[in-house]
Amino acid sequence: MKIYIASKAKSLVASILYLLTIMVPLVTFAPQSSGATTTITWDGGGSDNLWSTALNWDSDSVPVDGDVVELDLSILTQNETLTNDLTGLTLGGINVTNSSPSYYTYTIDGNDFSVSGDISVNSFQLLLDISTLTVSANNLSFGSISSTGSLAIGSNNISFENGKFNFDGALSGSGQVTLLTPTSGGGLGGCDYGNATATYPFKGDNSGFSGPIVIESNASLLISDVSTILGKHASSITVQSGGNLTFLLNNNTDMTYSTNINIAGGSIFTNQLPADDNCNTPTTLKTVTLSGNITATSAVDVYMYNRASLKMTGTVAGSSYFSVVDGYGTGDEVLTIGSSTQQSAEKTTTYTDDQSGFDSNVSGNNVLIVKEGAKAGNVYVNGGTLKGKGITKIIYLGSGTVAPGESPGCLTSTGLSYTGGTVDIELGGTTECTGYDQQVVNGSVALGTATTLAVSMYNSFAPKLNDSFTIIKNDASDAVTGTFTGLAEGATFKVDGYTLGITYKGGDGNDVVLTVQAVPATATAPDTGLGSLMTNTVASTVAAISVALMLFGFRKFNAKKQ
Question: What's the pTM?
Fold first, then answer.
């Protein structure tokens, strides 16, 4: 009987072992770490791109927990996708080394995994196409990483270096996030939003993140009124010296932010989205209200753009102060701290050389002067004043003033796109550029219907009947579209008693020309110089002689009569 049982047992064990040899290959597990940290490099020596294929690694062994995976960009001849088919893997880190002459990239897809070490990559040449990357150790550092998924950090602290990281998913956890250099994620567009480097590093629902955020020097974080944005649910925000914190309002909308903010220098930006696709300045003043406690231990610069004011209603403490930087915004933005308020003063910017490589925004009480010989890119005038004798690309006028010349002068551009604002023209003679202001346009001219023409006489100029002034000289062949407000083709208006007519078909058929159609009855310019003195003296002398003769004759007549 004992022998029989033993034989049965041996048969059962053999059967189990046989089944295991069949089943085990069907499931791929991450091999367990031996305890030592090893760096293994992908060489793609296998017949597939699976992590579980040992021949794909220089050590001919698959990654185990704690291993650092190294990806060499220099071996790439095309973009490569590596599939992690291992389960439950925790890497000791990822290093992307060398460079790819053709800027090829590695993509890691497949199963989720964790990291207990840094991810080092100097450019956007690593894409994680997994659902969630989990951080399983404290104080890790990530480089230029891009991911289609989310990041779970738990209670671990993490920092982002090299200025580039971008997750399509969300951030969750309660650990500290430190932004070391500017984040990536596609700027804020072509209009001037102020601090356009501030972006959304996590595009998903970040309401699951409740940790503190630290913004180091040159790094930026943007917070809007979207409830899922990073920072909306942070336990605190710390802005170090040189860091930037931006609050962006939707057009015509206020916002309240209740998180406590500690500021050791750096800057705060407020902005409001433009009123339309033409980047026109919002018409209504709106406010970002910081209702949490604010502590400032070093001087803080405040930049307010596009009618977005800043108000602090929580406790404001610390040894330093907040200072509004002059020359930004429309000039009516207000910083309010308790009962104290600040507004920016006028700022004048002068271009004296070639600045055509970038666009300029002129708003509020700011002035841009493009000097003769200087160049500017596209200029968006939204509340400020553009003047000068230089050359610009297209001028977009939504509000504010375009005043060609510098009393007087010609301002040259590659096009005009006017939807509002004022064009200020001075007439001081009959010669263009030296006698009166002119806009020279080498492109299309669109005046819209809401732009005002303001004409004034310069230096006591007294034009004659039929004098004409080409205020917009259109070198292109296309017709002028639109008209100045209230001034249709052939309309007349008065300036200092002179009647001026306007045509948009003047010159060679598409210039804007003013013509004097009537002069005032006393259209002699006042003379306050030597001629005036001589004339007044002669007149006074003649008058005195006349009075004397009259008196003399009166006395003689009386004498005879007696």
Answer: 0.64
Residue 246, token pair as written in the block: 């931006």
**33 CB-contact burial (10 Å; exposed 0-12 / middle 13-18 / buried 19+):** middle
Q: Is 300 in the same domain as 434?
A: no
Q: How many CA atoms, within 13 angstroms, populate the side-chain half-sphere of residue 363?
A: 28
Say whether both 236 and 177 belong to one domain: yes
Q: Report the SS3 class of residue 335.
A: strand
Q: Decide which of 317, 345, 373 is a domain's last residue.
A: 345
Residue 526 within any structural domain of the chain = no
> Is 109 contained in some domain?
no
pLDDT, one tens digit per residue, over 27-79 is 444 455 445 579 999 999 999 999 999 999 999 999 999 999 999 999 999 99
Range of the domain at 280: 170-345
Q: Are residues 301 and 448 in the same domain?
A: no
- The amino acid sitting at 216 is E
Q: How far is CA 3 from CA 13, 15, 168, 329, in A?
A: 15, 18, 66, 97
Do 270 and 341 lie in a common domain?
A: yes
| Same domain (yes/no): 480, 562 | no
Tokens of 225: 């009124």
Does residue 525 lie within any of the structural domains?
A: no
Q: Note whether 304 and 450 are same-domain residues.
A: no
Q: How far apart are CA 512 and CA 506, in angstroms?
A: 6
Q: Spell out where 484-554 has E strands.
A: 492-495, 498-506, 511-518
Is residue 259 within 8 Å of 231, Cβ to Cβ? yes
Say whether both 375 and 502 belong to one domain: yes
Q: How many domains does the chain have?
A: 3
Strand 68-72's sheet: what is its strand order? 39-41, 68-72, 93-97, 119-120, 140-142, 158-160, 177-179, 213-215, 236-239, 260-264, 294-298, 316-317
- Per-residue pLDDT at 254: 95
**Tally of CB atoms within 10 A around 284:** 11
Q: Phi/psi at 23 (nearest 5 deg)?
A: -85, -35
For the chain, what's the residue count?
Answer: 562
Q: Mark whether 306 and 359 lie in a shared domain.
A: no
Strand arrangement, sheet containing 375-376 = 354-355, 375-376, 391-392, 410-413, 438-441, 468-474, 511-518, 498-506, 492-495
138 vs 118, 135, 141, 227, CA distance in Å?
Answer: 10, 8, 9, 28
For 463, the 3-state DSSP assignment is: coil
Instruction: Indicate the pairing of strand 316-317 with strand 340-342.
Output: unpaired
Instruction: Give CA–CA dist 307/285, Å, rounded.
Output: 5
Reported as a single tens digit per residue, the pLDDT across 190-220 is 454 544 444 567 889 999 999 999 999 888 8
**Strands 511-518 and 468-474, bridge-based pairing:** antiparallel
- Can you tell me the distance from the alpha carbon of 472 to that of 58, in angstroms, rounded to the nearest whole number? 72
Within a domain: 396: yes
